Write the structure tokens for this entry.
Amino acid sequence: MFMKPIKIIKLDTSINFLSKTKLFVSLSFFFVIASIFLLFSRGLNFGIDFNGGTLIEVQKISGNAEVSEMRARLGQLDIGNIQLQEFGKKTDLLIRVEQLTDKEGDQQAIITKISEVVGIDYEIRRIEVVGPKVSAELIKKGIIAVISAVISVLIYIWFRFEWQFGIGAIFALVHDIVITIGVFSLLQLEFNLSIIAALLTIVGYSLNDTVVIYDRIREELRKYKKMPIMDLINQALNLTLSRTLMTSITTLLALLSLYLFGGEVIKGFTFAMIWGVLIGTYSSIFIASPVLIGLNIKRDWSKNDAE
Amino acid sequence: MLYFSKFKSISILLICLLGIIFALPNLLSQNTLNGLPKIIPHKQINLGLDLRGGSHLLVEVQSSVRASERMDDLYDEIRMELRRNKISLSDIAQSNNQIKITLSDDGFKGDLIDIIESLSQNVRGQLGSGQLANELEIIEQIDGSILVSMTEEALNDLLRRSVDQSIEIIRRRIDELGTKEPTIQRQGNSRILIQVPGLDDPKRLKDLLGTTAKMTFHLIDPFYDGGNVSRSSMQLKHANNESTYVVERRSIIGGENLVDAQPGFDSQTNQPIVNFRFDGQGSRKFGKITTDNVGKLFAIVLDNEVISAPIINEPILGGSGMISGSFTVQEANDLAILLRAGALPAPLIILEERTVGPGLGADSIKSGQIASVLGLVLVLIYMFVSYGRFGIYSNISLLINLSLIVAILSILQATLTLPGIAGIILTIGMAVDANVLIFERIREEVSNKKSVINAIDNGYKRARTTILDANITTFIAAIILFQLGSGPIKGFSITLAIGIITSVFTAFTLTRFLVALWIKRSNPKEINI
């Protein structure tokens, strides 16, 4: 009745993941440094959530929208720096107006002005305004959220495993977060509140992956008390490889359909998540695991069983 | 791990069944639902503003305006009291919400302090202490002058009252718009969060909130000769044209005496107007003043702008009148709403706005549906291809898992946002993880030549801690995300958190139950996984 299941990874697969440790670790190190450099030189393209300002999404009622014609229209208004872009469809435009002053409530006048010149042949689909107070609070909240997520999972891992595992997981997490932010800086993609949500989900996902591998390493440690640590970790990585890939692929399948068909509004979020799944999978194999070797993990797990 | 007691089997199936029953209303239209008997659940998922369209506004109550108004009043009162008690002033000045008083004769300082203390009102003290505190703080300075300012408690009390009253007024105004289920909540000390779903004209809502709607009637200053404006008068602009008026600072009557306001049309010019009616006290006051001032002009002032300055042709004794101010029909309508609902105690400033039109909301729902169905189908196919029979069991679990998520969201009446849909889709991808972990373990055990039952048993046992550890970490991230919680993101974290719980639940109960059932029935000699 059933065909034979297709296996991407044979059970006797034995890839020596750790043989290239030096290469991958230095590569990752390079990317982390490059990301930090980018962050300071190029900066992030902060959306209105963090910078304050006004965002208006409009749709041409009939025919295609024209960026240049719209730019001319808005140019007469004298409302400061305006960014204009096509948004997903040929009929849709996104208008972004920078926060000019520190005065709250200023933005409402801008909206009125824009609606007057745009309203004739465009439908206003979305208005978002974030004033200076709220944007400053959102920055603070975002940073606190990411840091407290990292710290609380660190505590959990420390509690469930050993401190070396906690350090390894943190290395992988910081690696994932920093490089993801680096990619957003490199491509100058809009960085907003939903990207913070994506970062936290990446934290969850990457850790999920790392924990599964760590669990297996711990189990192998109990089973093989004499096996060299390199071989042992390699074996654990190979044994979990099929699962690692399966879960990454199903998650990517779901995310990909969201990216392609889920609409323009959450595209940035989905992009960050897809990137996060890829880098989270990479880091749990090539970063989180080798770190354990350097940290000299406990070999005798017969006592103090965490289970 | 493969034995299920009768009780356990029934509970598992019952939970799955309940999941389906509670998820079902979401597939039906509201009309069909209303036709169904009461015993069937009716609750549907609550759609967020980004999906059904609507406005989210975070406003701040500018209570400092009221503090300075109070200081203005106090300034006048102190001067009046001093004059009444024949104490002569050397200087009185008001700045930064402080009044500085210097007397000509320091001997009367005690009397001055008595006067100020008598003007000081009692305010609520520290929150929860139940004690009363002084409104005014009096500081004697070295140079002999006296500084009067409001105490911390008074300012806090003023803020608290302003926010309470604002919430009440906002609710009345929004109710007049006829929208369903608005949410109006206090946020922190000075802020109010307003969420109004399904609004056709968000600008109208903002106009209604942006107007304090403090209406007062003033006599036009009869002594003004075009020169300097005297201290007892003030110069105001007309709301619709460039003309200015000099009116007496003291109002003859205010909006607080209004009992009704309705839009209408002027019987002669057919222009839109607002008819209003005063309460008994207001009627008497208004009657007396109009009797005394026939032939003179008075100004109807709304938020420091003159909207109309008619001449008093005859005494108005009935307590009702009309405002004609070259309004459009909607303007007259809105002014009537504002006057009926009452004035805001202090101006509101919009700190944050997120408005989604109904068109975009509908589009987002549609794309969310397409993406979820496609993602689901891809994952179902992939799982079947990878694990054969076991893939099917896992797929059944995944479908039940989804209906459990939908059911829980419906029961909790949690809000589903666009990021929330993303959370569900992400859960589809990640939910299979628990089953993947188990199946991979079983696969390993099979290759180690274990018997079928042993292989499955060990597979479940060994994968258990890993699954718990892995999911608890993601769950922690979801909880922190919830704390960060701005609207849509909260929606994402809720679906993610619920998805984690349901997927672990279905992996350990339903999938395992299906596998056990198969083993019991066909007692297979080998498994293909």
